[in-house]
Known about the structure:
- Keywords: Signal.
- There is one protein chain.
- By secondary structure, the protein is of the alpha+beta class.
- The protein folds into 2 domains: about 20-130, no CATH class; about 135-165, no CATH class.
- About 35% of the residues lie in helices and about 25% in strands.
- The chain has helices spanning about 1-20, 30-45, 135-145, 150-170; strands spanning about 55-60, 65-70, 75-80, 85-90, 100-105, 110-115, 125-130, 175-180, 180-185.
- The chain has a 7-stranded antiparallel beta sheet with strand order 1-2-3-4-5-6-7, covered by helices on one side. Strands 8-9 form a two-stranded antiparallel sheet.
- Strand 8 (about 175-180) and strand 9 form a beta hairpin.
- The radius of gyration is 30 Å and the shape is elongated.
- The N and C termini lie far apart (about 105 Å).
Amino acid sequence: xxxxxxxxxxxxxxxxxxxxxxxxxxxxxxxxxxxxxxxxxxxxxxxxxxxxxxxxxxxxxxxxxxxxxxxxxxxxxxxxxxxxxxxxxxxxxxxxxxxxxxxxxxxxxxxxxxxxxxxxxxxxxxxxxxxxxxxxxxxxxxxxxxxxxxxxxxxxxxxxxxxxxxxxxxxxxxxxxxxxxxxxxxx
Length: 187
């Protein structure tokens, strides 16, 4: 019996080490906004840059584990984004730390907006997380931006662009004209 346990431990130890050495799986695409909202809320709470947080894993839909170096040690934080408009944050190692931050979709319904400020952190504006723009979104943005400008402004920009090209052509270096073996400067 004792030998059987020892043999099982020898076989399972390398498998466990391999599993622990693998990088954490990336979040699914539909979790992107929720995870970004968690990261932004946590960065505001702890006054850290969003890039300082690492994705550890997902416990269940909408509940994520994030890691960060905080208070002279690595900390793992649980962050849940609920469908009823709350972001719930709890420290896994220090359970009493729990915050609930309300969020809501913006007027267009594309982005999530939360309001949270920490007295220690200089960032005070609302937290806004939007899905990544597609190529179609970018093209429509360019069209909308172009046509929302006043016509005189568009004409002025076109005139400046054309004037700049004409001036470049006029001031381009002219080849020297040779006269009797001496080169004369361009006029």
